[in-house]
Every structure is written in C-alpha cells, then in structure tokens.
C-alpha cells in the first residue's frame, strides 16, 4: 500500500488524462459531424441536422472546461493553504472534477445519439 500522496498524485494524473480524452472526443465529434454534413451538402442535403449534435458536443466541451478550471482553483487553494501553514481546504461535491467529467461523458453519449438520430432522419435519393 502506498502513502496518500502517491495516490493523490496518481489520481490527479488520471483526472488530467480523462479531461484530455473528453476534450479530444468532443472535438472529434464536432469534426466528424461537420465533415459528414459537408459531404452531404454536396448531395443537396441541408446541414441543419448537424446543429443539435454540434451543440451537444459543445456543451460537453464546456463541462470539460469547467472541470479544468475547478482543478486549477482547487490547486490554487491548496497552494495558498500550504503557504499559510494551514490544512488542505475541504471542497464540496460540485467543486470536484470527477462529477463534471462524468457529466461531460454522459453528454458525449447524448451527442453521439443526436448525431445518429440526425443522420437517420435523412433520406438519400438513390439514382
């Protein structure tokens, strides 16, 4: 068993990796939807179907950004407490990044569903 500092450092590294993954996934989702909408526009299909999925992916990016800002805020509070020789501050549930990371992941799944629903609503004329 390691000491708590080792586990805390590992936890922060993993949280940073999760945030990078979420940003990449949402950004990739936006790029994929835009590329698909662009290719369908060449076939005279209006890209309005892409608005909802892009909007939902953008919300996921916002949630990942909030998670990053909260992580920075917590670290600054911990730094200030260490400078002053005080105990680490306690943070409420909404200040923890993992809750925002989970929300971002759930929104990602919703954005993928919105994109698939949007594509499924398109009828392509063959021939």
TrEMBL record:
User: Keyword set for this entry?
Assistant: Membrane, Transmembrane, Transmembrane helix
Name the residues that span the membrane. Answer: 21-43, 49-71, 102-126
> Superkingdom, according to UniProt?
Bacteria
This protein is called: Uncharacterized protein
The scientific name of the source species is: Luteimonas kalidii
């Amino acid at each position: 068993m390691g000491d708590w500092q080792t586990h805390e450092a590992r936890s922060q590294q993993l949280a940073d990796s999760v945030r990078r993954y979420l940003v990449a996934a949402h950004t990739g989702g936006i790029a994929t939807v835009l590329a698909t909408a662009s290719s369908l526009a060449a076939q005279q299909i209006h890209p309005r179907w892409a608005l909802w999925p892009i909007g939902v992916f953008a919300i996921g990016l916002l949630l990942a950004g909030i998670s990053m800002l909260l992580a920075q805020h917590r670290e600054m509070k911990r730094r200030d407490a260490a400078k002053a020789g005080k105990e680490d501050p306690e943070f409420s549930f909404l200040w923890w990044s993992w809750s925002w990371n989970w929300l971002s992941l759930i929104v990602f799944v919703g954005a993928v569903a919105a994109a698939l629903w949007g594509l499924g609503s398109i009828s392509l004329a063959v021939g």
